[in-house]
Amino acid sequence: MEYIRVTKDNIENEHICCAISNNRDVQVASKKAWLRERFEEGLVFLKSVERGKCFIEYIPAENAWNPIEAEGYMYIDCLWVSGSLKGHGYSGDLLDACIADSRAKGRKGLCILSSAKKKPFLADPKFLKHKGFEVCDEADNGIQLWALNFDGGTAKPRFRECARHPRVDGQGYVLYYTNQCPFNAKYVPIVEQTARDHGVPFKAIRLESKTEAQNAPTPVTTYALFYNGEYLTNEQMNEARFLKLLAK
Length: 248
Description:
Layout: E1 3-6, H1 26-39, E2 44-48, E3 54-60, E4 68-69, E5 73-81, H2 90-104, E6 109-115, H3 125-130, E7 134-138, E8 143-149, E9 158-159, H4 161-164, E10 173-177, H5 183-197, E11 202-206, H6 210-214, E12 223-227, E13 230-233, H7 239-247
Parallel strand pairs: 5-6, 10-11
Antiparallel strand pairs: 1-2, 2-3, 3-5, 4-9, 6-8, 7-8, 10-12, 12-13
């Protein structure tokens, strides 16, 4: 498999794997705009030359849009291989490339979000364990911070205090999200409208800066849904899923 690094110089012409390729689509436009602003902060987006979901996205942890303390580490935003590309070792290829690049840049190790049991849109804990990662912190909602330490003597990454006990004020549904996930640009407005149509209190809070994201009340900032203050899920909601949630 060949891989290509997406940069500010080629991003207009490259498919970004997890959304449709039409640059005029709101999902693609929002994701690419977010990526452009992160490249100067050290973000790397490495993807398969084949069309499909096969990529890794990582950034120095100091610039990660998550409430973590992991100075000197590299934070993996997303490692995603699916569809016909799954099961061929490409996840290992991408992770190995990230490890080599991170070592070359003098990073102390890698960290990534996961959980004790596989959750949607989070790294597979079985894969992480197989690759030598270990759990170094866990929030009350079961979201874990895993790390791969390169030198064995470095302090472990951890969540900031604001994210250890995920909870928000207010009644009804509250959603925290960022444009890091392209699907939000399409589906957050749809869920907002569905909530209005059913008279359900719903507030969507888009985190618009690294500072806001690093001080968020949730380990997962790409999508974190709360109800009456309690954390519910990081799984993306479309209209059907949200209606099913309301029915409960």
